[in-house]
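Schema walk-through. Below, the input block comes first and the output block second. Nothing else is stored per chain. Lengths vary across the set, and this one has 743 residues.
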Amino acid sequence: MTKEIIERIESQQLADALSTRYLSYAVSTIVSRALPDVRDGLKPVHRRILYSMLRQKLSPNASFRKCATVVGDVLGHYHPHGDSSVYDAMVRLAQDFSVRYPLIDGQGNFGNIDGDPQAAYRYTESKMTEAAMLIMEGIDENSVDMMPNFDGTTVEPVVMPGAFPNLLANGGMGIAVGMATNIPTHNVAEVCDALNLMVDKPESTTAQIIKKMVGPDFPTGGVLIDDFDTIVKNYETGKGAFRIRARWALEELERGTWQVVITEIPYGIIKSKLVEQIGELIDAKKLPLVEDISDESTTDVRIVITPKNRNVPADKMMAHLFAMTDLEYRFNMNFNVIDSNGAPRVMGIRDVLTEFITHQKNVLRRRTNWRLGNIDRRLEILGGLLVVYLNLDRVIEIIRNEDDAKAVLMAEFQLTEVQVESILNTRLRALRKLEEMEIRREDAALKAEREQLVALLGDENLQNEQIKAWFTDIKKQFDKKTALGRRRTSWDAQTEEIVVNAEEFIEKEPLTVILSTMGWIRAAKGHLDLNNLDLKFKEGDELAFVFHAMSTDKINLFGASGRMFTLSANDLPSARGFGESVRMMADIGATEDIVRAFVLDTNAKYLLVSRHGNGFIISGENCIAQTRNGKQVMNVDEKNPAILCVPVTGDTVAMSGSNDKLLIFATAEIPEMIRGKGVILQKYNAERTYVLDVMFFDAADGFGWTTGRGTTKLDDWKPWVGRRASQGRTIPVGFPRSGKFGK
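--- output ---
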């Protein structure tokens, strides 16, 4: 027995086994869970929820029923997954801020736009909406294929048949394995216009379609600010981004003051988190035009923003808010759906509309054939009943006297078994002349209807007209004049962006910037006396840099890594405490030395010097860092870090090194660069020798140095003048032992 088992073992590479099994899992996730079908816009869980509610007769006119009942039925018959996944999907279909046209009418707490969760399903009740009924219209008319459920005890639809364009109307989002979908919501009336256009003119371009259906129509409203060409490009490829802004209005108050009221926010943004985000930016002084924000929302959104003062332009304040907060949001569209062949792919709008129209034509033909079958069966029965009325006495005689009346009737009047069964089941009270006339009228009407249906099946133009009639009826039901059908997201293409320089609204006031050796930074109000400071530091810490600045200045930090970091003086913490770690305000390494801290002058030039005498001049405007990561301006390494950043203030430069050499040369010999390692400024013979100090001066003013005893002027400094990259000469008598030129 053991030998037989061993012989049946098949060897397989682990990578191949994992690949095969993971691919099966990925396909299952994509098709059976994450992506909607292009034909009905539903994922399997949504489809099963609606089908379960239909079977429970939870129509819009029915009474509400506990959501627990629906969830239990879905789990028991159609969807063997967790109850939370089913209920969460059900809740989303009922939220009017999540879907444009809710498919479920919920009663109870189904969550809100602030992100508060829904109540448990034992507390909430639901039934379907008219939109849900339209999605399933004709499902009992053999309009779509049915498949066995997971245990084979019942069946469920493969796809829904209705003409309601749910994929575009309600959009969808989902994350599968290796792919995702994110489809915006649209206005149904506009989608129906686009569908009718595609029925009449299948060759219509995307631009022509978008003229009928101008971009998304989100349930939370907002303003679409992209231009027409951008919108067309997004829908052409099925991928792209839309810029959605909050809707705001100016409210005039007393004494010339005003405030901004936001009444609609971008789709998908949680209102409470948006208010919290703006509040944190106000506290961090990153919104200098805004004084305060308050949420006065009830059932409608009402967020009030108070400006710093009434002289602040409202449009500039809002432009700054749009740039800094989620009041402007980019919706990244990805039309990744399951097509009619069951394959996932990204579709452009033309393909989406074409697939939906093709599906509706298939549904129309199947419903027509189903109706023809019912008509043929009814005409067969009516034909038998007419025989009864023509030969009523003989039929009664056969029924009364013959043992096998069924066989005799079939043989004598050439009737089918169905016709005879109908005759034998006819009640005596129906054998009236009036009933015969009614049957003849029904027979004539059914034959006329049959003629029309046969003509419909044989004429594609008639099919197109019928489909257009369906779309037109849906458009009337969700007309833009109705509360549900009105367009909520308006299109207001921004032809010119408002450029906001928030710094121009910062109040200009003097500051004294203090930076410790351990990297704690703070700003004291006013220009303190730098020679008479009473500063406290943490244990083991001491003063590294102190200088005067204005609140509108940019403060630059030059690190040993060769990177420049830029901070706004207005954002520096108060000097009441020890301040904040500058390494938290910018991404400066924990062990990286800060070479220099200074007020950046974009019109100035600075000399950057590395330990072993390399350097170059850089302009102030090239020292501005736009991000926390800083800006790499000097290429250095561990053995040769950056050690000096000196403003260029003269036509001559003096350098001293640890080799006790002094070199003086013309500033013009130093190249100006944007980034690099630089050139050799002073030459050293060994790696252990390095630059001690650099000083600029004007040759006309002479050369000297400053010590605690005062300033020394060297009468004849020409012997130390040389060319850049030379060693220089031994330092003059009386030069400071530190090798520094002094302050």
